[in-house]
Amino acid sequence: MILTILCFIYTFWVTYSYGFYTAKLVCGKKGYIDFPPAYYCIAGFAILSAIGQYISLFLPLGFTAHTIIFLGAFIIIIFYYNDIYNDIYNGFLKLFENIINAPLSLKFIFIILVLWILLYASRTPRGYDFYLYHTQAIRWIEEYGIVPGLGNVHGRLAFNSSWFILQALFGFTFIFKEPLHFLNGFFFFLSLTLFWQGILDIYNKKMAINSLVKLLFFFVLLYLIRGVIHNLVDPILSLLILVVITLWFERKKDLNDLTIFFLFLFCSLAFTIKVSSAPIFLLPFICFIHMLRKMDYINIYKTLLISVLIILPFLIRNIIISGYLLYPFPYINLFSFDWKIPLSAVIAEKEWIYSWARIPLMHPHKVLSLSINEWLPLWFIARSFIDKLIVLVMIASFISFFVGIMRHKKTFQIFELQGVLAVGIGFWFITAPDLRFAYGFIGILHYSVNTFIKS
Length: 455
Prior knowledge:
Elements: H1 2-27, H2 37-56, H3 63-79, H4 81-101, H5 104-121, H6 128-144, H7 162-169, H8 183-203, H9 209-224, H10 227-230, H11 234-251, H12 257-273, H13 282-293, H14 297-322, H15 343-358, H16 364-369, H17 372-381, H18 385-407, H19 412-431, H20 439-454
């Protein structure tokens, strides 16, 4: 556990420095004060994922790659030490004050959760997908960077994810015999520091929508916390989407340049972690319209450029690993490399994903031949009790939203967020309706309910 704590501290400084410098580079001095440190760390993850992917095109992500990353962070800290120190000090001072001023029961809950995260981040992962292909994909990145046609060895090795890049960068296999798997735990800790404020606000009877949403997201975090020990990508993606929504709530009345930049940055990271998160991009594009209205063209160019630079290496890695721009998505079939995965194999992989999420352990052709009236009841019956409740809440949320729209006409901001939800849930439902792929979008459901109740 001591080693995990040291890794948390080191990763915090590295990610924060890159996130801080990028925010300063894009937005200058205006507006980058008074953001929680967790946002800068997640922004740093986005930047480091892109840097790692670019490096992986030429080098394995071992000692040399990490040295480049470390030297970059070291130079940033040296040049901006005072700004970084003051920002971190003020951010964590506020967090510690909230913990100290909290009642004993809440202090106990927070300490237990932090210890829980540290404990399970120190243990060997136990997730099925992790042993099926995650750990192998990460090892290939650590040893070789990138291998043309790797997906021909095993179809799942072509499932490119920037989270694998980050795990390879911070696995420290060049120091230890076995890779460290603390990164999921660190991301859970960052999310906890953001959502914790909702509990304190509710305790202090601050019944703002923002506080209620953070409280609900805190319970989603508790439900997903097993993702620390399973070391899977899906819980991280769900938390990242919830972080995007949290930032939207906190700053929707004052969408400054840094807020919009963070939204684009976080959504770009989410897309490169898993393409199924693509609908969340609708939120920053709504903000993009606000920027156009202000004719803030310089920051528009900067924000879009950074997003493109983050997504570009992800697409390049897809092409090299599988021969397809997106995998397994056979409909964009643009290339004809020698190492390209056969089209029939790509289609079979896609069908397995779609069918397994609907009815596992049944042949894909049989599942996909069923109508929605045939497979949906079987799908619902197979859900756990908690998942059934989530589905019922999903339905109730849509009903409450439309009732609210009928009763209260001036609800454009609600419609914006609910529209993103509808697209995200719809995309999830028609592709791979396994609830673990949709917890991030489902978390948004509570917004419409809470807004309707408050109104």
